[in-house]
Design brief:
Layout (H helix, E strand, L loop, with lengths): L9 E3 H8 L3 H9 L5 E4 L4 E4 H16 L1
Antiparallel strand pairs: 1-3, 2-3
Amino acid sequence: MESQMIRPGYLTAHQTARQLGISLDGVRQLVRRGQLRRSGGTPRQAWYAVPDIAALQAKRQAREAA
């Protein structure tokens, strides 16, 4: 459900999950644990900042490489 117009520099929860290779529930868990922060949207359709997602992705890749 990505019918809402989204500002440049932000991704929806679906796009974030796809980018990180996890499920929507995985995105919710990251938010609950404080590893990812909502950056806008509506209560039902959150937006996440691309730099936050990129930083999380780099951190996860560094952990896998170690």
